[in-house]
Amino acid sequence: MAAPCSRMVNRSLFRQFMTHVRRTGLKHAGVRLMSLSCVCRTATRSQSKPGSVASPWKLYGAVCLQRLPVISQERNPVEDRFAELMHQMELERSLLSEHEQRLLEEAERVRRKQADNYDSDEEEADYGGQETITAQDQEDTWEQNLKHFQPALRDRDVGVPALGSVERCLGDSLVLLVQQTVAKGNIWLLPQAQWEAGETLRQTAERGLASLPEADFKATFLGNTPCGVYKYKFPKDVQTEGCVGAKVFFFKALLSAGSAGQKEPFLWAKKTELQGYLKPAYLEKVNRFILDL
């Protein structure tokens, strides 16, 4: 019934338009007659302008907060052998440093003192008779300082839960996971929040990170464009006529500073550890934009 009614309305508008043209006395003027199909399209477009339709998907903004490596990673055996080779090549091709030249000069002075024709007056004239600290004395002092030097530990999470510390695995890139209630269970996810009218998806992700309890994370977001999206449908008993599922848009961010309470369900996981916490379908989407640097 919609199509015939639309044609009737369009023909009525066309007749009114032609009647108006005849009454204005422009019958013999150079007026171009309009096509009926053009008038029909214009009238249909003006009368049947669609309104805004609510989306059947709930929108969420999530943040992939990464803590970049703090120290270099441990070398494997091949890298150790290569480093030794490069050090040996550099040692063989390099020139003597000032300290090494000084060691040779002092060794030559000791050799002259032990000779039979040693002239102490000539030696004092060259060096002014001043008592100086030898290069060997400096090396002994450096060795003593090295013995008292204690290098920092590669892992600083001594005495605290391993996965809950931001200072674990300092040589690897870590991703923040939180335990949130979804449907009727608690699952591990990237921090997220539901979109609210009037805000951008990035603002939604920022709000999701800021709303974490007992956490004070300062993050630098890398742009306004999502780096990934995860879409899923709700169970049949949860779906409604206006909502069938959810879409989660991910934004990447780097940790600048901050910490979290150890009592809260937070953990910092490496990319290789995510499979033990995230659902397979969720993990498949997340692995696409997480770089294991």
TrEMBL record:
<protein>
    <recommendedName>
        <fullName>Large ribosomal subunit protein mL46</fullName>
    </recommendedName>
</protein>
<dbReference type="GO" id="GO:0005743">
    <property type="term" value="C:mitochondrial inner membrane"/>
</dbReference>
<feature type="domain" description="Large ribosomal subunit protein mL46 N-terminal">
    <location>
        <begin position="57"/>
        <end position="150"/>
    </location>
</feature>
<dbReference type="GO" id="GO:0003735">
    <property type="term" value="F:structural constituent of ribosome"/>
</dbReference>
<keyword id="KW-0809">Transit peptide</keyword>
<dbReference type="InterPro" id="IPR033650">
    <property type="entry name" value="Ribosomal_mL46_NUDIX"/>
</dbReference>
<keyword id="KW-0496">Mitochondrion</keyword>
<keyword id="KW-0689">Ribosomal protein</keyword>
<comment type="similarity">
    <text>Belongs to the mitochondrion-specific ribosomal protein mL46 family.</text>
</comment>
<dbReference type="Pfam" id="PF11788">
    <property type="entry name" value="MRP-L46"/>
</dbReference>
<dbReference type="InterPro" id="IPR040008">
    <property type="entry name" value="Ribosomal_mL46"/>
</dbReference>
<dbReference type="GO" id="GO:0005762">
    <property type="term" value="C:mitochondrial large ribosomal subunit"/>
</dbReference>
<feature type="region of interest" description="Disordered">
    <location>
        <begin position="109"/>
        <end position="129"/>
    </location>
</feature>
<keyword id="KW-0687">Ribonucleoprotein</keyword>
<dbReference type="InterPro" id="IPR015797">
    <property type="entry name" value="NUDIX_hydrolase-like_dom_sf"/>
</dbReference>
<dbReference type="InterPro" id="IPR021757">
    <property type="entry name" value="Ribosomal_mL46_N"/>
</dbReference>
